[in-house]
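re: the backbone from monday

yeah here it is again, tokenized this time
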């Protein structure tokens, strides 16, 4: 039903009575004990059904290395150009 005209407060409240959000059901990871979505891989350790699905530790490591390389690149560029201070 399309809302075309001004409604009474009760009409608005009636419509909004269905707008409440519900908290998601979460399962506890058997490997690390953190909460994750049921039937989904644990986003903390990468385990599902007792085995590693995605090696999140290696991913984190490679990401850190990538970020570190980027940081060094930025720092190197900053040292080359003279910094102007106000
Ligand atoms: Zn876990």
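seq for it, each position gets an aa:
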């Amino acid at each position: 039903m399309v809302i075309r005209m001004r409604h009474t407060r009760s009409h608005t409240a009636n419509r909004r009575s269905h707008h409440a959000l519900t908290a998601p059901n979460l399962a506890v990871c058997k490997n690390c004990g953190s909460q994750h979505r049921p039937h989904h891989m644990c986003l903390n350790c990468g385990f599902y059904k007792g085995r590693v699905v995605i090696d999140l530790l290696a991913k984190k490591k490679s990401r850190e290395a990538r970020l570190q390389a980027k940081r060094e690149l930025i720092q190197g560029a900053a040292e080359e150009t003279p910094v102007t201070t106000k």
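The chain has two helices and four strands. Strands lie at 27-28, 35-36, 47-48, 51-52.
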